[in-house]
Amino acid sequence: MIEVTRLTKRYGGKPAVDGVGFTARQGRVTGFLGPNGAGKSTTLRLLLGLDRPDDGTALIGGRRYRDLRHPLRTVGALLDGAGPVPGRRGVDHLAWIAQSNRIPRRRVHEVLDLAGLSDVAGRRVKGYSLGMRQRLGIAAALLGDPEVLVLDEPVNGLDPDGIRWVRNLLRGYAASGRTVLLSSHLMAETAGTADDVVVIAGGRVAAHGPLDEISAGHGSLESAFFALTGGRGALGGW
Ligand SMILES: Nc1ncnc2c1ncn2[C@@H]1O[C@H](COP(=O)(O)OP(=O)(O)OP(=O)(O)O)[C@@H](O)[C@H]1O
């Protein structure tokens, strides 16, 4: 479970997230939505210990990321911009992460297989397509067979087959009682994958609840999103 409480982070005195609170529950996929600059990546970075909050807490299984004993075994993450070394082979990228987290080598081959990358595992990452890189990032997130998955725009660059793979993977993950937090700009895709939705705008939570409750009265998640965010982006950017 993920519990975010009154989370606040300021950059140069300006809040990027301002008292954000929500829960992502076990056995459910939680979609994390918001316009550009709304504070999604900042929230995820704070959750994953890549930045320190000015106020509030972001807990994974009741602990802050930096207090986790085996972080990769507890939470697997795919974040924008955290790419592999281009000259490294796909299999070596995963093997290096596995080794540094005491994850058995056989798990590398399991996740390569899961991600449909077994045939290209020996190729250097610089020769990978965008979709193959994305699959490698998701494979890395799965390495520790974690209780919690946190994915920032996981279907970015994936073809329809890849998108369906991610959807089924996340649904299966949640069905096994684990927790998935999924940030996305794609409303239809989120509506087809998520059980619960958190909408953030201007650094604050605009709505949080089951997908059908959020969409109720709007016809679609997309219409609900526009009604809730009203074109708001970064704080002050109405
Ligand atoms: N390191 C930083 N230094 C200064 N400002 C930052 C920093 N990181 C984020 N911000 C600002 O905080 C606000 C929220 O940004 P954030 O990247 O969290 O939004 P986002 O919802 O992930 O947007 P997008 O959908 O475009 O990825 C923006 O105004 C952004 O400019």
From TrEMBL:
It comes from the Bacteria. Residues 2-227 form the ABC transporter domain. The keyword Nucleotide-binding applies. Pfam families: ABC_tran (PF00005). Keywords: ATP-binding, Nucleotide-binding, Transport. InterPro entries: AAA+_ATPase (IPR003593), ABC_transporter-like_ATP-bd (IPR003439), ABC_transporter-like_CS (IPR017871), P-loop_NTPase (IPR027417). Belongs to the ABC transporter superfamily. This is ABC transporter ATP-binding protein.
